[in-house]
Amino acid sequence: MHILVLGGAGMVGRKFIERLARDGELGGKTVSKVTAQDVVAAHAPAATPFIFDAVVSDMSIEGEAEVLIASRPDLIVHLAAIVSGEAEADFDKGYRINLDGTRHLFEAIRKVGGGYKPRVVFTSSIAVFGAPFHDKIEDEFFTTPLTSYGTQKAIGELLLADYSRRGFFDGVGIRLPTVCVRPGTPNKAASGFFSNIIREPLNGIDAVLPVSDQVRHWHASPRSAVGFLVHAATMDTGAIGPRRTLTMPGYSCTVAEQIEALRKVAGEGVVARIKRVPDPVIDGIVAGWPRNFNPQRALQLGFKAESSFEEIIRVHIEDELHGTFVK
Amino acid sequence: MHILVLGGAGMVGRKFIERLARDGELGGKTVSKVTAQDVVAAHAPAATPFIFDAVVSDMSIEGEAEVLIASRPDLIVHLAAIVSGEAEADFDKGYRINLDGTRHLFEAIRKVGGGYKPRVVFTSSIAVFGAPFHDKIEDEFFTTPLTSYGTQKAIGELLLADYSRRGFFDGVGIRLPTVCVRPGTPNKAASGFFSNIIREPLNGIDAVLPVSDQVRHWHASPRSAVGFLVHAATMDTGAIGPRRTLTMPGYSCTVAEQIEALRKVAGEGVVARIKRVPDPVIDGIVAGWPRNFNPQRALQLGFKAESSFEEIIRVHIEDELHGTFVK
To answer: What span is annotated as the signal peptide, if there is one (chains A, B) (predicted)?
Structure first.
């Protein structure tokens, strides 16, 4: 099978392609080719049992999506997006990439016709929800985003459902939890500290905690995020019905519980590298974020995430640190 | 004040403009000009205390919205849409008019800049909801449309909220109940019978009831629909917050209750003109429609509808039949 990954140079895209390279198959079918599209060139995994093609293009430009779809990939994983902060700072760019880009993709698929009906996996976000909400957000809660990014993702969900209902493709939307522990270097995203306070201390480096340790949030590991993509790509969509986007499972815990988990897994010396430096701005932003979900439908449909924060930390140590850390 | 009505030749647009002509003012401000845009020429009310300008244009064409917004109307009432059946039959046309047209309008307003921030009233629909739903749909229930029309309206709601949040305009979205009794001649809309079985018998003409009289639905009169527009155009939006679209109040009743109300208002002879001719196709379509709502927010914010179906019939007799009917 031929798999097209849009946003293939990003963290989740890269990890998904690495998993395909490791498995060699998806849902029992041999992967013959992976096309990784992004605005920068995606690197090929170390060893690939399939043809790997990195395409640099901008899907928001009329005609670019058609070029990608011309080869009729069997599976399209759409991870490409301008992130929340940038979509808020640059209104035009956010709508161009996140809305027009998605619509161009869906239209390009529709216009192939002739019985072409690929699986399309669309990554949405819990940013489709806007405060005030219940402590535990149910599957039937309404989407009232408070960012342009969340608005664009919610629109993508609606389009995905309508194009699937009309039979133009077979879509599954997945709302990812905050991916934690995010590998790499600390970034300035307001959510960065959730990962920083685990990743940096395990590397022997101090990390700043800018919020109260009573802040509660919704997490899943990068490994789980890849697992969601694999399941969304291979599941029987007959069971989903017309409500095509699902809130993915995750693990809800407070920062205090994150720290306690780190203590259990890595010890007091590692925890001591977390420095509390309250930042009222970040505290204010985070106060408007969802804290917990009751993702019944996704669980019933077989999506799985970690069931403790210790497990999330162990996954990070296994997948990113070769099983070891700085004591 | 200058008011721009998009879709001004339609039934609700026409009645809204007639009310403006009668009142001469809106929210205490004298109406100096009304521009009625549509794809066909809107007729001027019999007597207007303001300048009336009918513009024939297609907002889905790039640049047309800019022309309409160039004069900086103080209030924009956006009623223009391809209806549900046509949006389902013609995928491209539905998205072009209902989505691109709305986006062009919003973008045209945004691009004026220089402190221009008009009130924008956007008419949405209960078609944003898709079965299965609760018997009484709450304000926080999610929108999972089962038609392209409902999808396009739900996207319009999201854009309205984001453009309002960003300060580009001051938007209020209103989800209209089924407007009943709809004046004019019977049409082939699946929902037509809700009005036909009242309007035609009052005119001395037989009408077909194609569904069980146990079918429950959600109604408001054309007069109430105009009242919603007036209130949405003049209310203090400070009280709305970022959740800009509201499910309008209405009256929920079964067809049997509609018929009973007609009996009370007009007598047995009129009711005898309703002929029961079951149509399983229409029965099937109607089974997927919302039956009842709990529109708490709209009620708290001062929107009002009829509180009985008898009242809905009396409004029809007053507004459309000069107070009389064929016994």
So the answer is: none
User: Is the Cβ pair A146, B242 closer than 8 Å?
Assistant: yes
Partners of A130 on chain B (C-beta within 8 Å) are 242-243
**Domains in chain A: boundaries:** 2-176+221-247
Category of A205 on φ-ψ map: left (φ > 0), alpha (ψ -120 to 50) or beta: beta
Q: Which fold has domain A2-176+221-247?
A: Rossmann fold (3.40.50)
Q: Which chain B residues have a beta carbon less than 8 Å from that of A131?
A: none
Catalytic pick from A95, A149, A163, A251? A149
**Per-residue pLDDT averaged across A165-170, rounded?**
97
Contact criterion met (CB < 8 Å) for A162 and B148: yes
SS3 A218: strand
Q: Which two tokens stand for residue A226?
A: 């890849």
Tell me how far apart the alpha carbons of residues A176 and A78 are, in angstroms, rounded to a whole number: 13
Largest CA distance in chain A: 62
Q: Which of B90, B151, B163 to mutate to test the interface with A (most CBs of A within 10 A)?
A: B151
| Annotation says A116 is catalytic | no
Contact between A17 and A36 under an 8 Å Cβ cutoff? The reply is yes
Q: Taking a C-beta distance cutoff of 8 angstroms, is the pair B14, B52 a contact?
A: no
A243 in contact with B, Cβ within 8 Å: yes
**Taking a C-beta distance cutoff of 8 angstroms, is the pair A44, A54 a contact?**
yes
DSSP-derived secondary structure letter, B74: S
pLDDT single digits (tens) A241-258? 999 999 999 999 999 999
Residues of B annotated as part of the active site: 149
First and final CA of chain A: distance in angstroms?
44
pLDDT (tens digit per residue) in A103-126: 999 999 999 989 999 999 999 999
Strands (DSSP E) contained in chain B are 2-6, 25-26, 29-30, 33-38, 51-56, 75-78, 119-125, 137-138, 170-176, 178-179, 207-209, 216-220, 245-247, 251-254, 274-276, 293-294
Residue among B130, B141, B161 minimizing CB distance to A242: B130
Q: Does B141 touch chain A (CB under 8 A)?
A: yes
* Closest residue, chain B, to A242 (C-alpha): B146
Instruction: Report pLDDT digits (tens) over A275-305.
Output: 999 999 888 888 888 999 999 999 999 999 9
Mean pLDDT of B243-256: 98
A115–chain B Cβ distance below 8 A for any pair:
no
Query: How far is residue B18's CA from residue B34's CA, in Å, rounded to a whole number?
Result: 11
Helix ranges (DSSP H) in B113-235: 148-165, 192-202, 222-234
C-alpha distance from A247 to closest chain B C-alpha (Å): 13
